[in-house]
């Protein structure tokens, strides 16, 4: 049997249909302006994000990796044989720790990575096939919503949806509730949800993580405009915008913006949209919420997800939760 199958539910580089880009028009025509964070992740953006994960200031990836290394075997023992479904799989680097654990226990390896960036999905799937001779990969180039609607029951006894890397923090509380309800509709009773989240910590550490000294986060933020230029035939001048990130302590969230350095007009041809910017006007490109573990567990319980186990690091910077429907 073919060990690799790649399905394209969206076109990751150009508008797929007439409604693609409506979210961009909406975000840029309201006040204050905002853009959906998923537009960070074209192929270049996914590469920049991989670089962010290796930055000395960006403690998230290192911390979560250490937790996974500690508990992966336990996770595999609890869930038993299951299909691993990963939302926002990117390079799948951390997922290898889980694959290794299932592999050591002699379980069959079925992996279903889902990402909006086709380039990174294709190359990481190829590499995984080389490194894991028994692995079967069924990759989906898709948004989370579309993919969750399309998920099919596995031939294996169970499934685990993995949503690691604290991407849940990039959703507003409202979006988070909707997302979790999509997760529970996709799962069958007894199946698993593995969630990695960044926790609250001092402002200095957080602001350093989103304002790295090498400027990779700034490049990642600005790349969103380049992506919109390519995808929607726009003429954003990247020189005329600046990265701005800070911790909003009352909301417990990093807010990442692009600030217009002068008065300017931008045209997005494919969307037939003109956008005016005042000097210093900002576009909110991302929130990154830092969660409280008790509050999160309450939200999960309200959604019908039982927490089976929680793992954290010695400093309690990051948490990994294994939940079950
Ligand atoms: C993907 N997500 C969890 C990252 C975060 O930290 O919120 C995205 C990111 N934004 C700036 N740096 C990294």
UniProtKB/TrEMBL annotation:
InterPro entries, A to Z: EgtD, EgtD_Methyltrsf_superfamily, MeTrfase_dom, MeTrfase_EgtD-like, SAM-dependent_MTases_sf
Source superkingdom: Bacteria
Record protein name field: L-histidine N(Alpha)-methyltransferase
Keyword Transcription (UniProt): no
Gene3D superfamilies cross-referenced by the UniProt entry: Vaccinia Virus protein VP39 (3.40.50.150)
Keyword Methyltransferase (UniProt): yes
Domain Histidine-specific methyltransferase SAM-dependent: 22-324
Record's keyword terms, sorted: Methyltransferase, Transferase
Matches recorded under Pfam families: Methyltransf_33
Gene Ontology annotations of biological process type: methylation
An example Gene Ontology molecular-function term: methyltransferase activity
